[in-house]
Amino acid sequence: MATPAEVAEYLGVPVKTLYQWKYRAIGPNVHKVGRHLRYRWVEVDAWLNAQAAYDLAV
Length: 58
Hints:
Elements: H1 4-11, H2 15-24, E1 31-33, E2 36-38, H3 41-51
Antiparallel strand pairs: 1-2
Helix pairs in contact: 1-2
């Protein structure tokens, strides 16, 4: 599982953006482990792939 800082670096966005996405329920799925937020890499990659799933050939 990854920390918000690791996911933010991977996606190239600020950590604050991840928190906004969580609040708006538009980002990768996030889990609470105790008091900490953690991301599963598989879910981050699935979310990222879904973002690029539109067709530009139209």
